[in-house]
Amino acid sequence: MEKQPPKTGKFAWTYGLILGSLGVAFSAMFYFPEKIYRENSAAGIAQMIIAAGLIIWAIYSFRKANDGFLKLSQGLKMGTGIMVITGILMILYTILLSNVLDPEFAAKVMDFKLAEAAQESNITPEQMQQQKEMGIKYFWIGYPVILIMYVLFGLVVGLVGGLILKKAQPDY
């Protein structure tokens, strides 16, 4: 009986759940000391490095399970699939955070952003209040943007990982 090749979807699901869980745990760590409202570039870079490493590891594991062979399309599917699962988990966490755990989350984020903007420019209090209201009203627009950014990142890392780890099966 011939051995069935592994499915990219199974690997993407498994590693996407792992990365999504790590992302939620990472975000929760920033929530409790209330650092989640501010942008932290070091934390963002660390999350990107962890995500890229996990995607490459997943592609390598898939290649190993596939008798050492990998097509570029499989690497792309893995990177994209992992980040779709991760993005959905992060969006669900953000919805839970902003609607249940901290209903004032959007307002707090806008307050921090507007405080920074007020220091850099001469914005009137009326303009700040108007921007805050608009930001809270359209906070949901961030959800598809999050997913799009995650998918694009997964495509790029999947492409790079697929090109590096690509190995074609012989024709015979």
Automatic annotation (TrEMBL):
Alphabetical keyword list: Membrane, Transmembrane, Transmembrane helix
Stretches that traverse the bilayer: 12-32, 44-62, 82-101, 138-165
InterPro entries: DUF4199 (IPR025250)
Protein name as catalogued: DUF4199 domain-containing protein
Annotated organism of origin: Sungkyunkwania multivorans
